[in-house]
DNA sequence: GACATCACG
DNA sequence: GACGTACGTGATGTCC
């Protein structure tokens, strides 16, 4: 088909794909020979995903991937410094370039590059030709240098964000229409491409100038008229430099080309060619996916021999590929005993349980899988339901147990001695879950190792630690998705309804993967110097958390229910009032509708739209409006507070009361936060309200049973104390030793005012600064928090750094350490990786502040973990149970007559938790509270 | 499922 | 020189 009217040309910016792929993936190498192929892998994945997305009206009729031929182009003739500040290509990326061309051809997409020209010039040329032929063009790229081409049927598409870039988006970015973009770029310059532009003029200013004068030439001709003296002089002095800049940024839409549009017609990939290429690259997962899509046989990719281990991985014994067809179904005692024999020989086994629920407190055990060496795994079904006969037309199966299973009691009787044997290591992925299931059947699993925690100790900050992620990343294998067995949404079934044959494959595979991950990770602990972290902060915490979760906390349903009703009444009143004030009915819970009412209909000032184009209606915005005397936003704030309390707390918590225990059992995620903090889910009991009076009353529903007392002990200012220690802040350390009010002391140092009779406002500001430091302070952030001008906030910070010079040094040292090593460390050796610390743009700011915060937040998290791990032994024999952890607080339930000894014991453990590993220069102090409920105890 | 909002330390 | 910024979480409701 010739290219013409009705045709749609896709032009893909190949270099952008390559760099994105390179930076998004770890340095993968081809298993058989160590060839770097990370970027190629990412490139192929992106290309495949992109081609898969072709459908409907927007599918291209023609397409091509455009590459840069080399880094030298005609622009270097004009200006030798062009792109001269680009960092050297990474060593392992260069050899991958030719492979990306091959990959493109393998996908049967045209592949274009031209000596002396940039990919952008070729794109400009093809776009022009396509437009002139009457067709449409989509450029797959987010490069701002291509934005000058937008308009007249040419659009860009940011494939990663799936965001279309049309004329409006270009105007948003450059302040001018696409045809004036080069003029703005010529003035603003570009540090990335080393385009000089006009010094002192950025995009904003450039857009204003071009809006007024039309283009660069006219502006330069009228430079004398510019009012601002500095700007005028720049335009006069740098006229030639600006003209050159314009030449550099303007794309050449008349690049000489051999390729014709007609040659670029979209064609289906040839399965054989594509799969052959993917097999050569040894992309196992992608090959399978592509083969499936094309309806072809996946290629056989031989596993490499142990003689040629991948460069970055530990040498592993030769391994059988993961093959779910080879797992054994264990149906009787004889078979199970054979497995037990092997386990006893080996001394370790990977274990996984299948159940009917993610909530361990209600889940029923359905089956157990075991793996003794890679590829050798089995599944012991014990609770699968019989599937109804087809003739019975029974969609739900029956309640009868399926045939050919061992009785649960029989299986457990055989396994219990193994699971409890000190000499046999039980390996699991998220073992806390399985241990709790077994605990409900009176089996105390120990000792254990946990691949999720191994990954967390080794790789916190790099990626998640779920099995799917780990398997794909480290074993290059995509596990059978649970959804393929259970379905999803409303139609989802529970695992006991899964056919046993399918369950064997899925469950045994999980155990197989777990064992392989363990073999990979365990030896790495030592090399990465995190053995101590794993052995003292991760592994021993598992049984402690399991016990706390099983304890649960008593929650009084009636209290919650009464509060829900009261909230509902108040909300109804507020809602009526709000509708009255608005003059119409609308959904108060919809920020979108609220924004339109406030800023469009009522015309209030201060409406700011976020990136999605909706008005911001956050609490800060509404508070400002309320302060100006507007009634509606004030009512909405009240309504929102009640709505939050009702839906998230008083309503939802009732749902979480376990019918058997009458208590609420949260789950702690040990690997949830990169810093070492725990996360609490289902429900989250770490964010129960406390800051407002109305919210705090929800804590009255967390009660101690008859004859017992709630006890709350929390560290005082633990993060600031750790900061004082690690940053060596002499004054602050002394203040803590003297037991002073630390925020008042800070204020006194900074503003030279006495602590006695201090203005509370001054203390509040000092407090905000103290917190700000922990968060990686910025003038902007502090200004917003204190609602003061930015310059004033910056002044505070400067003064603070002057008074406490250790702070600045700590921040700089920590940033430098992160940049050099790619991680930061807590006092206790926990490593938190900071993969984005060396990136460009706003991301770097985030990464830097996170890097500054992590050692402080992380060390505090380590301290309370150490306390928790020692707690069971410390309160052994006392009538006390540890129930909850809220980052710096521990909550206990204690017999009323034993409160004092428990407080004494717990306090001692918490205050001494850093030792003996670390001797802090400041004391850790703990405050205790007690009462009939959490509100009183806190 | 993304986004906005808001609860906690 | 401009840009966008406090750190770490989880749950809920709206909207597409």
Automatic annotation (TrEMBL):
Q: Which UniProt keywords apply?
A: DNA damage, DNA repair, DNA replication, DNA-binding, DNA-directed DNA polymerase, Exonuclease, Hydrolase, Nuclease, Nucleotidyltransferase, Transferase
Report the GO molecular function annotations.
DNA-directed DNA polymerase activity
Boundaries of every 5'-3' exonuclease domain copy:
4-267
Q: Please, which domain of life does this record's source organism belong to?
A: Bacteria
Keyword DNA damage belongs to the record? yes
Task: Give yes or no: UniProt keyword rRNA-binding.
Answer: no
What is the protein name for this chain?
A: DNA polymerase I
Name the gene behind this protein. polA
């Amino acid at each position: 088909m010739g290219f013409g009217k009705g045709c749609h040309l896709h032009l893909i910016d190949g270099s952008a794909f390559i760099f994105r792929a390179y930076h998004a993936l770890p340095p993968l190498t081809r298993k058989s020979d160590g060839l770097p192929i990370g970027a190629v892998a990412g490139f192929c994945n992106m290309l495949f995903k992109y081609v898969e997305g072709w459908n409907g009206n927007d599918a291209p009729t023609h397409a091509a991937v455009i590459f840069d031929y080399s880094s030298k182009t005609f622009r270097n003739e004009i200006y030798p410094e062009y792109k001269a500040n680009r960092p050297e290509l990474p060593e392992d990326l260069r050899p991958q370039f030719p492979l990306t061309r091959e990959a493109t051809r393998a996908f049967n997409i045209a592949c274009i590059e031209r000596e002396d020209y940039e990919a952008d010039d070729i794109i400009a040329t093809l776009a022009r030709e396509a437009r002139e032929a009457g067709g449409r063009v989509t450029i797959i790229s987010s490069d701002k240098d291509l934005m000058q081409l937008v308009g007249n049927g040419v659009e860009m598409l940011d494939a990663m964000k799936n965001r279309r870039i049309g004329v409006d988006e270009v105007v948003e970015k450059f302040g001018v229409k696409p045809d004036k973009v080069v003029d703005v770029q010529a003035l603003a310059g570009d540090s990335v491409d080393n385009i000089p532009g006009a010094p002192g003029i950025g995009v904003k200013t450039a857009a204003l100038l071009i809006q007024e004068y039309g283009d660069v030439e006219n502006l330069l001709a009228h430079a004398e008229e510019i009012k601002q003296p500095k700007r005028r002089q720049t335009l006069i002095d740098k006229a030639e430099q600006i003209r050159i800049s314009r030449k550099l940024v303007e794309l050449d839409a008349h690049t000489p080309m051999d390729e014709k549009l007609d040659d670029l017609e979209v064609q289906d990939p040839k399965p054989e060619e594509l799969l052959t290429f993917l097999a050569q690259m040894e992309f196992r997962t992608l090959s399978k996916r592509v083969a499936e899509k094309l309806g072809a046989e996946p290629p056989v990719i031989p596993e490499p021999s142990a003689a040629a281990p991948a460069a970055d991985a530990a040498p592993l014994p030769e391994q059988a590929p993961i093959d779910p067809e080879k797992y054994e179904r264990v149906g009787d005692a004889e078979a199970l005993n054979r497995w037990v024999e092997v386990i006893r020989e080996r001394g370790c086994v990977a274990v996984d349980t299948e159940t009917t629920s993610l909530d361990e407190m209600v889940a029923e055990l359905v089956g157990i899988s075991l793996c003794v060496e890679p590829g050798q795994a089995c599944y012991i079904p014990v609770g699968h339901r019989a599937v109804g006969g087809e003739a019975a037309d029974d969609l739900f199966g029956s309640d009868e147990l399926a045939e050919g299973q061992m009785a649960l009691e029989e299986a457990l009787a055989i396994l219990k001695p193994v699971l409890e044997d000190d000499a046999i290591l039980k390996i699991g992925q998220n073992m806390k879950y399985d241990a709790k299931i077994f605990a409900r059947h009176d089996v105390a699993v120990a000792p254990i190792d946990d691949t999720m925690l191994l990954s967390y100790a080794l790789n916190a900050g790099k990626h998640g630690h779920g099995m799917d992620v780990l398997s794909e990343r480290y074993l290059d294998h995509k596990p059978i998705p649970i959804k393929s067995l259970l379905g999803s949404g409303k139609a989802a079934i529970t695992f006991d309804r899964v056919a046993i044959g399918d369950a064997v494959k899925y469950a045994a595979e999980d155990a197989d993967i777990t064992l392989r991950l363990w073999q990979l990770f365990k030896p790495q602990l030592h090399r990465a110097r995190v053995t101590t972290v794993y052995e003292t902060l991760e592994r021993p915490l598992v049984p402690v958390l399991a016990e706390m979760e099983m304890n649960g906390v008593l929650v009084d349903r009636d209290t919650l229910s009464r509060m829900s009703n009261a909230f509902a009444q108040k909300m109804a009143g507020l809602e009526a009032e709000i509708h009255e004030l608005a003059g119409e009915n609308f959904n108060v819970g919809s920020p979108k509708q609220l924004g339109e009412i406030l800023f469009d209909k009522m015309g209030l000032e201060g409406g700011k739209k976020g990136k999605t184009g909706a008005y911001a209606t956050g609490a800060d915005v509404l508070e400002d409006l309320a302060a100006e005397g507007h009634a509606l936003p004030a009512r909405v704030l009240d309504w929102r507070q009640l709505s939050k309390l009702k839906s998230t707390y008083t309503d939802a918590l009732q749902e979480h009361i376990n019918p058997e225990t009458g208590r609420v059992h949260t789950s702690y995620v040990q690997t949830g936060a990169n810093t070492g903090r725990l996360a609490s889910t289902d429900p989250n009991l770490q964010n129960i309200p406390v800051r407002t009076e109305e919210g705090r009353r929800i804590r009255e529903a967390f009660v101690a049973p008859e004859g017992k007392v709630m006890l709350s002990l929390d560290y005082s200012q633990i993060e600031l104390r750790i900061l004082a220690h690690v940053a060596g802040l002499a004054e602050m350390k002394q203040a803590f030793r003297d037991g002073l009010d630390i925020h008042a002391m800070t204020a006194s140092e900074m503003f030279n005012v006495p602590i006695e009779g201090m203005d509370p406002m001054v203390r509040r500001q000092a407090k905000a600064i103290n917190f700000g430091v922990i968060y990686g302070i910025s003038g902007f952030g502090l200004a917003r928090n204190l609602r003061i001008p930015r310059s004033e906030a910056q002044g505070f910070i400067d003064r603070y750094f002057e008074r406490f010079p250790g702070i600045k040094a700590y921040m700089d040292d920590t940033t430098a350490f992160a940049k050099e090593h790619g991680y930061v460390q807590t006092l206790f050796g926990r490593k938190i990786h900071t993969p984005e610390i060396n990136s460009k743009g706003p991301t770097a700011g985030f990464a830097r502040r996170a890097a500054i915060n992590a050692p402080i937040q992380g060390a505090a998290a380590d301290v309370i973990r150490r306390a928790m791990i020692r707690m069971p032994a410390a309160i052994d024999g006392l009538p006390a149970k540890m129930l909850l952890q809220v980052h710096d607080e521990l909550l206990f339930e204690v017999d009323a007559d034993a409160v004092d000894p428990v407080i004494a014991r717990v306090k001692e453990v918490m205050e001494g938790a850093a030792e003996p590993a670390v001797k802090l220069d400041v004391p850790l102090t703990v405050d205790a509270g007690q009462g009939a409920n959490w509100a009183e105890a806190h």
